[in-house]
Amino acid sequence: MGAVISVTAADGHAFSAYRAGRPDAARAVVVVQEIFGVTPYIRAVCDAFAAQGYQAIAPALFDRARRDAILPYDNAGMHEGLKLRAEVGQENALRDLVAAADVLTTEKKGIVGFCWGGKLAWEAACHTRAFAAAVAWYGGGIAETRGQVPNCPVQLHFGAEDAHIPAHDVNAIRAAHEEIEIFTYEGADHGFGCPDRPSYNEAAATLAMQRTLSFFEHWL
């Protein structure tokens, strides 16, 4: 089990973050929350990385708008999360991701994000040089910014049944970035990695995590 710590971004904003794993672990990763906050699931992801020999940290990105916001996995929670996301803004979220990465003690650091966090992992790869590898699970909106050039290797995961990220969006990303590993999972919907969501798909989640770990093992 990890612990909640306080982290300060470059602009002086102090926020909480869930940190797990040995401080001297050989690999390190920033875990980026869904639109629902640093939920028990996101903490469990950090714990799972820690069990694999990683330092892991999940910054509470909503703290800029509302401290300790953890939202339910339903339509009301999603709409509230979208409101908080708009209040935080991408630039501030990236500041907090870089600050979280600075807490990690390895030279090379990875980033993995889910849902909103998937989009932010992509943006962090393109707009910062804090990360040596980036993985995005069902990051909505990546297609709209596919013209950007990432500063590190990127791996993307999408559910084939995800109405939020249709196949033509995934194909557009493929066409723009032949160098990026992109995986789609048949029968998997948006949020397929989270056991607390109705869309959870154990087979897809297990395979996607295996691929994520292999990717990080290669680049970190």
TrEMBL record:
What is the protein name for this chain?
Dienelactone hydrolase family protein
Q: Which GO terms describe its molecular function?
A: hydrolase activity
Any idea which UniProt keywords this protein has? Answer: Hydrolase
Pfam families, per the entry? DLH (PF01738)
The keyword Transmembrane is assigned to this record: no
Report domain Dienelactone hydrolase positions: 16-218
